[in-house]
Amino acid sequence: MAEIEVKASQWRLVEVGRVVLFNNGPYTGRLATIVEIIDHKRALVDGPSNDEKITPVPRHAISLANIILTPIVIPKLPRAAGTGAVAKAWKKEEVEEKWSASAWAKKREQMLKRRSLSDFDRFKVMRLRKQARFEVRKSHAKVRASAKS
User: Fold this and answer.
1) Rounded to two decimals, what is the model's pTM?
2) pLDDT tens digits, one per residue of 95-111
3) Do residues 70 and 49 lie in contact, with contact meaning Cβ atoms separated by under 8 Å?
């Protein structure tokens, strides 16, 4: 018989301890973790925050349509864990540090910064990109010229 290798899927599962990102509602752009799964469309979330500037996301039920599952998981978080236990596990797993180090968070931050630019700021970005493109083309032309010689 042929040897078959069974691999676990790489899907992000709705599971207790999964860190989620709000994409809709009053907490848009904030992080929380799934504490309990209510049914196939809703989950109970709680979002502690290490940053004093950002108020924590209170424990509440949320539709799964209003959140995005991130690859970050708090392992072995008990079902329906209290806010204190969630906050302790959140800090221990360094969720916010992992999130801010991820390419997804950096790209999102860049997108939000670009979205908030004024017309003059967009003009300055265009000019800088033109200058950079000119320098690159100049160096490529120099390399091509030296290759022909």
Assistant:
1) 0.77
2) 999 999 999 999 999 99
3) no
